[in-house]
Structures are given as structure tokens and as C-alpha cells.
Fold this sequence. Notes:
The protein has 461 residues and is mostly beta strands. The chain has one helix at 2-14, and strands at 35-38, 52-57, 63-68, 82-87, 92-95, 111-116, 122-127, 145-150, 155-160, 176-181, 187-192, 210-215, 221-224, 240-245, 251-256, 271-276, 282-284, 300-305, 311-316, 332-338, 346-354, 370-371, 377-384, 390-397, 403-405, 422-427, 434-438, 453-458. A hairpin with a 5-residue loop joins strand 2 and strand 3 (63-68). The radius of gyration is 21 Å and the shape is globular.
Amino acid sequence: MKRLLVLLLLALAAVGLPGGSGCDGNLGDVSSGPISFRVSVARNFAPADGPSTRPTANFDGSLVAFESRALNLARTEPSFREILIRDRNTQTVTSASRLVFETNKAGLADCESPSMSNDGDWVIFTSRRDLGDDPATPGPEAFSTIWRYNRFSNTVGLIIPTLPSTNPSTPIDGNCFTPSVSGNGQVIAFASEASNIETNPAYAPSPVAQIFATDLTAGSTTRLISHAFGAPGTPCNNAATNPVVSADGEWIVFESRATNLIAGGTNSFRKIYRASRDGSVVELVSRMDGLAGAEASNHCTSTSVNGDGSLIGFAFQGGNLALAPNSGDLGFPLIVRDYSDPLNPVNRVVANDCFLFGIFNPVLVGDRAAMSVDGLSIAYTASRLPGLTDLDIRVADTSGGGTRVISKGIIEPGVTTLEDLFVVPTISGDGRWAFWRADYSQEVIGDTNALGDVFGYGPLR
Length: 461
């Protein structure tokens, strides 16, 4: 068996396809075709001694950033969640979040929600770690801010939100969360509850989260994206969350139950919107075919977008956009809205087994899907028999070619228990590699750490 595994890994290396590790304790089903593998392992392939989650990858999947509490993957502080990067070519793990904090351990705090640029040069994340602006109060900040790590200079620093120029040391007064970065690392979208972010034009305070975008190619200009129709400085009237930036940085897709984002008023279901990066255009995505199609008659979530914003994927709780699931379906419809003809956008259902995690809770870790840059593939969490609590990671062909299970592990089809918790999938830009977090102890051979780990699968193409 070990000889077979070694030969398989050598074959992968020979064709430029990085495998999971050089250790049979971190590989899944190797009987034929692509393999599953564990990402959250040390350089010597030892399993992590703390839980890991929320992977994000560069374009070719060779770099994977993720949250982790493990102490044996890279140098980290006990009890704090760090952002780690695994280089699957060199099999090394580095920290993207700890570099500037070593002298002020009192100011440490969790680092969360990484997002990686396509070239792998930049990793964006959130943290309450001390900004160093007030030596008299060295502890963590009251609210999380957004940081950016540069892999080549090995530096990390505060990037946004921009604070009021009249008093730069004024801390923000609300949390920032779930950032998303463009392919070149220059456009960053995020949700925030803060009322004192400096934007152009200035915005009125809001009691609920809003979507903002910082464009580093335009002098670090930050704008309110989720504004009321025709009023760039007026926040929408309900929470806006889960932004996703297209790889080219031109479009920001997000979710909201607001009723004033577009003209004419809208229903109060959770809906999907597409906005230009300067916020001048905001369009309702979750509607029937055509520019003026009827709005979705139920909630939508799990948003994803292709490289130029012309394809947008989302899960639908059932209704007028796609028939509600019947007793033979395992979940809910996964829909792609196609803007290839911008004057006549159309919808197509690409799967009927999407699992919806707490659709009324916009920050639950499972509310995520990811689309490849070319728009041909979406990685998502799927329900499977015998019950809707048994989950898989699947990849859907957006052209209608069906779906495939990638979280198959070492047993096929696997053990159907609540342990089968596969969540927060992502996919590399080239669509060849997918990554996710699982508590499943049979995803790879010899998984004995009894912790949530980050896994991968591929090549898919």
C-alpha cells in the first residue's frame, strides 16, 4: 500500500500536480483518479494539534490559506486563531497573521475569514488585534478591523477601514467581517457595522451591517456599496452581508433583505445583488429571466461569482425561480444567473441538493459556495441520504453537466453519520482543486486527531 502511495505522489509531481502530502496518513481514496488529501498538516506531515477551517486558495491551488488554532503547523500563540498559508509545492506552512504582534502579546486576538488573491501575493483577514495606536491600552481593539498580508515582503498591516483623517487614531466603532479580495489584491469588499469609516461620499450611520469596498488602485478610496437607490451616502434599510468580489475587481455580489436597494421597492426575502465596484450600479440578481423579471419568492444565499461577474451562483430556498424541492430531492436548488447577454440575463438550475445553513443567520460558516474564474464549476455543500444533516462537498458543472462528490474519503460512499460535516468549500481559480473543512475522521487514511481539518481534492480537470 505504501509503495502504491509513493508511486502515485511521484506521478503527480511529474505532471506538476501537487499532491496532499508525502504521508499515507494524509491521503484519501487512491484507488483511481483524483485523490482527497489533508492540507492542515505540518511540514513533516504530522496532523494539526488544533482545529482548522475556512480555506481560501490562489488561482492554481498551490497556496491555501486557512484559520487554525494548531500550534505545530507554524509558530503561533496558544488559544488564538491564526491565518496560516500552506505551500503545496514546498510543503511548508507560514503564518500570515502573527508577524507584527510578537512584542505585544497582550494585544493578541483571533484572526479570521481569510481571502487570497489569485496570484497568492495577498491575504486579507479580520482581527481585533491591537493597532498599536495607543500605548496606554495595549490590549485587543474593541472591534475587528481588516488586515492585509504581503507574502513576498512577509509583512502584514492594517489596510481598511480608512479612519477619519481629522483624527487618524480614532478607532472604528463597529466590527468588520467576511472580506473578499479581487484577483490582483487591489479591490477589497467587506461587511461592517461601523458608522465612522471614511468613505467618498460620506455615508450616514446605519444600525445594521453594510457592504463597503476599498479600491487601492484609486488612492485607497472606500465607498458604501449597499446604498439606497439613487442615494450613494444612504445605507440600505436592512443588513447587507457576505460580499464576494469578481476576480477582475469590477463587480461585488452580496446578500440583503433590504427593500430600497433598487427602484420600486422589493420584498423582504434575503436576495442577491450585483454592484459595480464604485457603487454606481446596483442590480437585483435573484429574479426571474430578464432585466425586469419577478423577484425571487423565497430566500437566497451561498453566493458565488466568476471572474468577470457575468455568472453569479446562489442557493434558493424554493419558489418561482426553481420549483421547490420534492420528496426525491436532497436539498435546495443551486442556480446560476447568466449575464452573457446583459440585456437578457437568464437563470439555470445546476443542482438540486444544496444545503442551506441557517438562512436567517448570514455569518454561519456553512453559507458559502465558490465559483472558478472561468465560471465552469461551483463548489458547494450538498445534502445526501439518509438525512439532510449528512453532508458532502460537491462540484457542479454550470453548463448543465451534473455534479460530482469530492469529499468521498477512504470509504465510498462513506459513513452516513452526523460526523460527516463538510462545510466552507472553496475552489481554485482554474477550477482544478477544491478545499473545505471537515470533522469527518475517514476523509484520509489514519486521521486520528479528532479535530476539524482542512482537506482538498483534485485535480478536477
